[in-house]
Write a structure and sequence with these properties.
- By secondary structure, the chain is of the alpha+beta class.
- It has one domain.
- The chain is 49% helix and 14% strand.
- It has two helices and two strands, in the order E-H-E-H.
- Strands 1-2 form a two-stranded parallel ribbon.
- The two termini are 15 Å apart.
Length: 59
Amino acid sequence: MVLCTTPFEVTARNIARVLGLPSYPFLTVQHPIGSCTLPELKERAEIAYRQALPILLQS
């Protein structure tokens, strides 16, 4: 599972495309994360978790 912040979404999609995986699923969270408070980081983790579940549960 790949997680990136929003400014890097285009880069992540381009890398996936170049590697032959144009529809590779990945998660995005609001930027930045390095300066987040613990409550802000927990909120972003919850958002990422909600994004990840459907991807991880695909069969």
